[in-house]
Amino acid sequence: MKQAQSTSSWVPSGLLFSGVCLVFIGERVIGTGDARGMLSGLGGLLVVAALVARVRALVAAADHVRSAEGHLLGAHLGVVAGLLVYALSTDAGLDAMGLEETARSRAAGALTVLWLAIATVATSAVLFLELAYARMPVAASVELRRLRNALSAGLTLSLSAVFLLCMNYVAAERDVRKDVSYFKTTEPSGGSLGMVERLDEDVRVVLFFPRSDEVLPRVRPYFDALAAESEKLQVEVVDFDLAPELARKHRVRGNGQVLLLRGEGDEQRGQTIQIGNSLTAARPTLRKLDGLFQQHFSKLARADRKVYLTVGHGERNMKRPEAPSGDGTQVLSAILTRLNLGTKDLGLSEGLGSAVPDGSSAVVVVGPQDPFLPEEAEALLTYVREGGRVLLMLDPDVDTGLAPLLSGLGLKLLPGVVASKKHHMRRAHGPSDHALVYSNAYSSHPSVTTASRHSREVASVFVRGVGIGRTADWGKLTPRPKVIFPLRSEREFFRDLDGDFEPGGDEAEQQLNLMAVVSVTPASKKGDGSPQDDKAEGESEGRLVVIGDGDFMTDKLAANNGNMLVFVDSLAWLIGNEDLVAEVSSEEDVKIEHSREQDKLWFYGTTFAVPVPVLALGLWVAQRRRKLSEARS
Questions:
Q1: What is the distance between the alpha carbons of residues 293 and 185, in angstroms, rounded to a whole number?
Q2: What is the pTM of this model?
Q3: 92 & 240 share domain
Q4: What is the pLDDT of the chain when averaged over all its residues?
């Protein structure tokens, strides 16, 4: 009787796998809300039930069955250990450990890798043990050697997978690549052709290359195409050794460079583009030659323009040692350099308390955290009313002291943080993600014209943004401002007033204005009330752009195309320079980016849809071969 005793069933392992799946769906698929807690809690209960069932089977077993149940219990405990480590990697677990900033980020990464490795190894051990154990239906048939071999096979396979994944991660982080792809030089874009077509003075393009140079045939067609657009652009090829005086005057140090020249004699100005005199060295530059030409040609053809960045009020562009790395503005500075816009600081010491200095193309305010003085806000308001240009990026629920500037031009910031349960991105997998929203509902206003043209491919992202509205008396202001909202949200947005990032009470879902533009004609230009020529009015009017997010152009968001295009379009509209948003042609490799839904599809497809059928087929073939072998024996 004892030898005919049945061994343990699949029930404990079935409960374990079901519980793990429910926890995974709750934490990684749903991520927020009551459904997440319910599924994760139910999954945890199933895991505990599986553990209890396995312990009871171990207590009731004897001899070899007891050893087999011990192996399975150890594998079950490994899965539980993986879930416990996952709990430590969540925000609640990190908070419980008291970790902050850099230590928190490092611990989160290490714990994520650790729990995935433990869960993978332990799950494989359970699966392989159960497959072997299922072929031992009674106690007399239990063979510990076969169980240990199955366990060894499962551990070997899972540890190999963990090793390969870790090696892949390290290789990706090291970013060591070998480019063996075909490449070609960019062709002149419509923006570059337009810039050349508008030339009012002769420009020479001197290509410093020997006639036999392998790079010259790649460069010459680009500039020949530009020269065909305007008779005022001449292209010539010169060997460096045959033009020492010209090279010395404009600091050209050798062949492999392009020199753009404008003017004659002592007033001649030049801009140099470094290309390289070998295909290997020139390849990266040739792929983005059009953008480099626009950048250097703009410096050559136009006078220097200055953008004032306000300081002294906790702005994001100020260097603060305690600020998180993503709050910097290095990308913004690089964009301004690319647009040939010089920058200067503007604060009380530079005279902001009385007036904006002369010679500024625009004033930019990037996410101030401390209030402006009333005199500074009044100086900015006067500056706009007299024809100045200002760009504000502001946060919600922060006393910036700029309310007089906004109200003087018919605007106000609405209370609360802009949030959405539908149009948001995932970062912490919690309710706080509802404040990481995006929108591509652009209008046709020039401040968003490029973004609007590409609205199917891009969207602007806001982190804890603020809604913008008109003041009740904006129509009574003198001079009367023209207020437009070129970027709005969808209707499924709400203003979070209580900090729980969930709609309720006075937080009804609605369409919110995320950006506002104001134009106002100076009173001195319309003293008699007579209509003016549209072009003259556009050149003299004051302009204001308000973007409802102080983080809009910080390093953590500026690389997003939707944010960058809106910023550049806004500057172009403020300054009145269409060349700022000239189209650029590029042959650089473009990083493939997927939406959140596409990422889910690729993840589940590569993780389950393809591997699971292959694994099932392999198990079926192995089982069939084993049955045939047993039948022959």
A1: 13
A2: 0.56
A3: no
A4: 84
